Amino acid sequence: MISRIVSLLLLAYALGFVLFAFTLGRPAPAKAQATDAAVVLTGGSGRIEHGIDVLRAGKAKRLLIAGADPAVTKQDLARAIPGSSSRMKCCVDLGSESVDTRSNAEEANRWLAKHHFRSLRLITSDWHMRRARYEFRKVLGGKYELVIDAVRTEPSFLTLFGEYNKYVIRRLAVWADI
After folding, report:
1. pLDDT in tens for each of the 178 residues of the chain?
2. How big is the CA angle at 45 (ends 93 and 144), to the nearest 5 degrees?
3. How far apart are CA 139 and CA 137, in angstroms?
4. Which end of the chain is more exposed for a tag (fewer CB within 10 A), N or C?
5. Tell me, what DSSP letter sits at residue 21?
6. Can you state the angle between helices 101-115 and 129-140, rounded to 10 degrees?
7. What residue ranges in the chain does DSSP mark as E strands?
8. What predicted TM-score, i.e. pTM, was given to this entire model?
9. What CA–CA distance (Å, rounded) separates 11 from 143?
10. Which domains are delineated in the chain?
11. Which of 173, 169, 163 is nearest to 24 (CA)?
């Protein structure tokens, strides 16, 4: 009986991983509404550049780069992203308080409240979006309208497997109230 239960749990885990791998986050549709703010979670290529593109396209008024290294300045980013200097000066804030996805959501919550925003566009990699969305919804509740905008990547098996495990462990921790 115990072996059947263990087998069933392993099967559910494996099927969950397959589902996770085939349903990664997607970019926001072109017709998605503009939001007051955009929040970029650092840690993957193309995320900050996409955030700047969102500002340029008028899809958000202001951008928070959450989890930025405290040593990085707006000038550093402007040099790395051609044509972004004016947007960096007027419309970008660097948040360096957060160190993980959960604290990214907490940092973003404080920033959103400070600016009295009502809607945000969440920008992160496709493989990271499920856990990021979960953490943001948990922290923000229903206070803000949330638009999901994933940056397409080609994640390796190890990246997907690691992220799936982080997601499952986090969900279990919340369920167990740990």
Report:
1. 899 999 999 999 999 999 999 999 999 999 999 999 999 999 888 999 999 999 999 999 999 999 999 999 999 999 999 888 889 999 999 999 999 999 999 999 999 999 999 999 999 999 999 999 999 999 999 999 999 999 999 999 999 999 999 999 999 999 998 8
2. 45
3. 6
4. N
5. H
6. 50
7. 35-41, 60-66, 92-95, 119-125, 145-151
8. 0.93
9. 37
10. 1-24+157-178 (no CATH), 27-154 (3.40.50.620)
11. 163
Pair of tokens at residue 46: 């193309």
Token pair for residue 66? Answer: 């959450």
Angle between helices 129-140 and 157-175 (to 10 degrees): 30
Token output for 44: 């993957």
Which pair of tokens denotes residue 75?
């000038």
Q: Which of 52, 19, 5 is nearest to 130 (CA)?
A: 19
* Sign of the CA dihedral running 50, 20, 32, 106: negative
